[in-house]
Amino acid sequence: MKILIIDGQGGRMGKTLVELLKEQAPEQELIAIGTNTMATAAMLKAGADYGATGENPVVYNAADADLIAGPIGIIAANSLLGEITPAMANAVSGSRAHKVLIPVTRCNLTVAGVSDMNLNEYVRRAAEIILDMRKKY
Prior knowledge:
Blueprint: E1 3-7, H1 12-24, E2 30-34, H2 37-45, E3 50-53, H3 55-62, E4 67-71, H4 79-82, H5 86-94, E5 98-102, H6 119-134
Parallel strand pairs: 1-2, 1-4, 2-3, 4-5
């Protein structure tokens, strides 16, 4: 199963997600793609198996990923303070991969019906969903 974790800014969300997944499924390869080098470095330090930075790695890897996880902004052009390019958003949203999107309001997106949790609770829930999905493959 090809799992991509995409994050930007300082990579804190992606770092935490990598740690949680590696804790429960150390054998699962994780590909960390940061929108900047700081985000990529944080996810690699957390235990991601591979890492890359920028638009082309997102576009290339989204094409054959089985699962893509990250903040909800990875499907919206110019979100994450402009770090998500239109090509990145198009590649992620158009990918056949299942997406596990973590709701964050800093992307100017609000999902109606989402319960009010802090970021750590959302990231933990995302990890649980990903680990459950691995059982289907």
